[in-house]
Write a structure and sequence with these properties.
216 residues, alpha/beta, Rossmann fold, 5-stranded parallel sheet, 5 strands, 55% helix, globular, binds adenosine-5'-triphosphate, binds magnesium ion
Length: 216
């Protein structure tokens, strides 16, 4: 497993739809900034200009019916661009990089959800991304029923057309959740599971404690 390059720290938030990742990242960025850290907030898919076009292709509810393997390769293409252009340069500058999703989401959605062999995803990650893993992954864990209700309420407000995964059935989302939990159990030192079914302040407080612990 390759260490995160440079002198920065690479933190990733994972979890199903509506788990609270994006809100927690805004909180973490503010808290770390107040403590004097330089922070880059980014996301997958879509952490680069090129990736934003891929994000639209991948997440928009209207129009696209990707074969699972094509979906996987677009996710990986987004990641290669993101790591090369955003994540590694920021780590080299000594920053804390906080990404909203990373390879764990690919293992969970395209692996657990779509049924692609996780060994293939790990092999692509090893070959195409130099086996580049986060220093810490926080898995925000919530039953899909709860997360999807949160997420759909937000989508219904019509701000974004990103509902392609939200639209899939509950069994899909249960497999995604289980994959995240399995990954965290295997990664131990590098992953924390946070019960995201609680009040926002409790979830975000635990996330901050875990990050500060890792930053030393
Ligand atoms: N612990 C919580 N309790 C109640 N509501 C929450 C909680 N966490 C987040 N929410 C609400 O749920 C919605 C989704 O939160 P957020 O966008 O942070 O989740 P996300 O994991 O980024 O979702 P997505 O995967 O859809 O991007 C928001 O409207 C947010 O205010
Ligand atoms: Mg989000």
């Amino acid at each position: 497993m390759a260490e995160a390059g440079g002198k920065g720290h690479f933190i990733v938030l994972e979890g199903g739809e509506g788990a609270g990742k994006t809100g927690a990242i805004a909180f973490l960025a503010a808290e770390l900034g107040a403590r004097g850290h330089r922070v880059t907030v980014t996301r997958e898919p879509g952490g680069t200009p090129e990736g934003r076009a891929l994000r639209h292709l991948l997440l928009s509810e209207s129009g696209n019916d990707w074969a699972p393997m094509a979906e996987l390769l677009l996710m990986v293409a987004d990641r290669v661009q993101h790591v090369e252009r955003v994540v590694k340069p920021a780590l080299t500058r000594g920053e804390v990089v906080i990404s909203d999703r990373y390879v764990g989401s690919t293992i969970a959605y395209q692996g657990g959800g779509r049924g692609i062999d996780a060994a293939l995803i790990l092999d692509l990650h090893a070959r195409l991304l130099d086996d580049f893993w986060p220093d810490l992954t926080l898995v925000l864990d919530v039953p899909p029923e709860v997360g999807l209700a949160r997420s759909r309420a937000r989508l219904a407000q019509g701000a974004v057309d990103e509902g392609r995964f939200e639209g899939l059935d509950l069994d899909f989302h249960r497999r995604v959740r289980q994959s995240f939990l399995d990954q965290a159990a295997r990664a131990e030192r590098f992953a924390r599971v946070i019960d995201a079914g609680r009040a926002v302040e409790d979830v975000q407080g635990d996330a901050l404690a875990a990050v500060l612990d890792r930053l030393g």
